[in-house]
From TrEMBL:
Keywords: Glycoprotein, Ion channel, Ion transport, Ligand-gated ion channel, Membrane, Receptor, Signal, Transmembrane, Transmembrane helix, Transport
One Pfam entry name: Lig_chan
Signal peptide coordinates: 1-29
Cellular component, GO, one term: membrane
Positions of the Ionotropic glutamate receptor C-terminal domain: 488-694
Full protein name: Receptor ligand binding region
Principal subcellular localization: membrane
SMART domains the UniProt entry points to: PBPe
MF (Gene Ontology): ligand-gated monoatomic ion channel activity
Keyword Isomerase attributed: no
Cellular localization per UniProt: Membrane
Listed transmembrane segments: 609-627, 647-668
Species the sequence originates in: Arabidopsis thaliana x Arabidopsis arenosa
InterPro entries reported in the protein's UniProt record: ANF_lig-bd_rcpt, GABAb_receptor_plant_PBP1, Glu/Gly-bd, Ionotropic_Glu_rcpt, Iontro_rcpt_C
């Protein structure tokens, strides 16, 4: 269904509807007869049509409709813009259907709109972007955040909010901030969900993290399907859940998770901006919803505070009463983006006309041969100046309700930023901000834009978060899965130095110093760790440790245990424990227990060595006796005394300091011209011995 609204001054009238064979077409459309069709005319058109394509009955749609109406009233009442040209808006309801949305887009094009605001759905955005490309009509979406819509394939599609590329990078930084390595993605299986989670996976990979499991459910899934999905998710190892779904049905996930006991201690739930869109739209907040969501961390598009923003929010109740909407249709951030989108078109038209451009349409030659069909595609016209008008939009630079409205070369809004909120029993509480300029901070991002960009880890700040189960300490983020597989531990099957790690016939299948340390660390854990040791290598030659590291990085092995050297290149792919062996060549030798003995001092030398040492001492004593007994009275006497003196002198040289002096001398043989160096020991005269060595 569709209807056409024409606003003159501040009043608004509803036109009657005429039902055709297939489409619902307006009887009279504002601007059909009032466009300037003569390109040589310098006069401005009396009115210009703009389309609005969204789902009426949705959190985003109900807020957007009020914002559209308010924006049209403000623009037409402002004499400083468009200078007498009235801006009319044509509404079309997509009804959360790709087919209905496509038909609505075609109906919209029949009204010769210069731009279309929407769609709300990313799936519809992919379809109607082809229509925009054919007819050269810019589409400005305030809610379709699929990152792939910003590709070069869709030059006429422009996202006036931040697309999910930045939001997924913000979530990745949040996961990295708490040093989690794996997450489970729960998402709706459409373009919005799949493409957003794909970007999340790429962003996590850059931080050496990953999505361990992707849990997708179809749009409109019932509670039974969601329950089966969450039951399977609960068997996984990771307890970090990232939920990326639509705001109108997303709360059912937490209702089912609560019934399955998945909202208690140890779990982490992170949601994209859909959750705050749903909660902000509830007036007042539902206590039952807050009870379900206690401890959840949610992201939301950040819009800086300003007087204009506060004034607009103050008008909200009057707008809602005027449109006779339900009392619980609250204000959310997409209302601001919808309001700014209309103003962006109006300001761009003002610049477009001031440059001497006109609005003209022409028939599409490729649609001329469709008149025989019941679908009158020949009524669709090409906006001749559409490419120039798109360029004007991309060059706009001003401040709106959502902050600075300026686009970069990739057609993205500059300065992307998000609020980070923690859901408590009293409602959402902001714990910080994220921006691509400084990462996480506890002060508004616009206060930091004047400073140099700094996203270093030490500069990241967030306030305290209360996790599910009212836990303050950040959860570990993983458990051993009930259906999990044991750890696959790679062990190098070496040929040499087998004392570190080698094959064995024991129950583990391996042994060695490194294995013993790893097993000792496992025993210290307060939970069991199922594990399997797998030998790496053929046992005929030492395996390549670089290849082993590569297989750990490729998840072929979960862990590698062995004498692996920590080098810079390897740390780029895997994490190492603290080193437990010093660098360098070391020998691991078994240590055997030994009994204490009074003869322990003999152990440094072998029996043969001690025998040779004793014989040398006796030989020295005998030589000294031969040299001294003729002159020294102490070496004379009965044979028994002389033998005792020889033994005493021999052993006293080993245990007694003789206070001897060493004299070095040089003998020069004049005839042979040779030099001989030598030294001798001068012993105390009490011993009467002169003993020297020649060298």
């Amino acid at each position: 269904m569709g209807f056409f609204v024409m606003i003159r001054d501040v009043s608004m009238g509803f036109m009657l509807l005429c039902i055709s064979a297939l489409w619902v077409l307006p009887i009279q459309g504002a601007g059909r007869e009032s466009f300037s069709r003569n390109s040589s005319s310098s006069s401005l058109p009396s009115s210009v049509n703009v389309g609005a394509l969204f789902t009426y009955d949705s959190f985003i749609g109900r807020a957007a409709k009020l914002a559209f109406v308010a924006a049209i009233e403000d623009i037409n009442a402002d004499q400083s813009i468009l200078r007498g040209t009235k801006l009319n808006i044509v509404f079309q309801d997509t009804n959360c259907s790709g087919f209905v949305g496509t038909m609505g887009a075609l109906q919209l094009m029949e009204n010769k709109v210069v731009a279309a605001i929407g769609p709300q759905s990313s799936g519809i955005g992919h379809i109607i972007s082809h229509v925009a490309n054919e007819l050269h009509v810019p589409f400005l979406s305030f809610a379709a955040t699929d990152p792939t819509l910003s590709s070069l394939q869709y030059p006429y599609f422009l996202c006036t909010t931040q697309n999910d590329y930045f939001q997924m990078n913000a979530i990745t930084d949040f996961v990295s901030y708490f040093r989690w390595r794996e997450v489970v993605a729960i998402f709706v299986d459409d373009e919005y969900g799949r493409n957003g989670i794909s970007v999340l996976g790429d962003a996590l990979a850059k931080k050496r993290a990953k999505i361990s499991y992707k849990a997708a459910f179809p749009p409109g899934a019932d509670n039974s399907s969601i329950s089966d999905l969450l039951a399977s998710v609960n068997l996984m190892e990771s307890r970090i859940f990232v939920v990326h779904v639509n705001p109108d049905s997303g709360l059912n996930i937490f209702s089912v998770a609560k019934s399955l006991g998945m909202m208690g201690s140890g779990y982490v739930w992170i949601t994209t901006d859909w959750l705050l869109t749903a909660l902000d739209s509830m007036e007042p907040l539902d206590p039952r919803a807050l009870d379900l969501l206690q401890g959840v961390v949610a992201f939301r598009h950040y819009t800086p505070e300003s007087d204009n923003k506060r004034q607009f929010k103050g008008r909200w109740k009057n707008l809602r009463f005027k449109e006779s909407l339900k009392s619980d249709d609250g204000f959310n951030s997409y209302a601001l983006y919808a309001y700014d989108s209309v103003w962006l078109v109006a300001r761009a038209l003002d610049v477009f006309f001031s440059q001497g451009n006109t609005v003209t349409f022409s028939n599409d030659p490729s649609l001329r041969n469709t008149n025989d069909s019941g679908i009158k595609l020949s009524k669709l016209h090409i906006f001749n100046e559409g490419e120039r008008f798109l360029q004007v939009i991309l060059e706009m630079n001003y401040t709106g309700l959502t902050g600075q409205i300026e686009f970069n070369s990739e057609k993205n809004r500059i300065n992307p930023a998000y609020d980070i909120l923690n859901i408590k029993s009293t409602g959402p509480l902001r714990v910080g901000y994220w921006s691509n300029h400084t990462g996480f901070s506890v002060v508004p991002p616009e206060t930091l834009y004047s400073k140099p960009s700094n996203t270093s880890a030490k500069n990241q700040r967030l306030n305290e978060i209360i996790w599910p189960g009212e836990v303050i300490k950040p959860p570990r983020g993983w458990v051993f899965p009930e259906n999990g597989k044991p750890l696959k531990i790679g062990v190098p099957n070496r040929v040499s130095y087998k004392n570190y790690a080698s094959k064995d016939k024991n129950p583990l299948g391996v042994k060695g110093f490194c294995i013993d340390i790893f097993e000792a660390a496992i025993q210290l854990l307060p939970y069991p760790v199922p594990r399997t040791y797998i030998l790496y290598g053929d046992g005929k030659k030492n395996p390549s440790y670089d290849n082993l590291i590569s297989e750990v990085a490729a998840n072929i092995f979960d862990v590698a245990v062995g004498d692996v050297t920590i080098i810079t290149n390897r740390t780029k792919f895997v994490d190492f424990t603290q080193p437990f062996i010093e660098s360098g060549l070391v020998v691991v030798a078994p240590v055997k227990g030994a009994k204490s003995s009074p003869w322990s001092f003999l152990k440094p030398f072998t029996i043969e060595m001690w025998a040779v040492t004793g014989a040398l001492f006796l030989f020295v004593g005998a030589v000294i006796w031969i040299l001294e007994h003729r002159f020294n009275e102490e070496f004379r006497g009965p044979p028994r005394r002389q033998i005792i003196t020889v033994f005493w002198f021999s052993f006293s040289t080993m245990f007694f300091s003789h206070s001897m002096h060493t004299i070095t001398f040089k003998i020069i043989r004049k005839h042979q011209r040779e030099e001989t160096l030598g030294s001798f020991l001068l012993l105390p005269r009490s011993q009467g011995v002169l003993f020297f060595f020649l060298c």
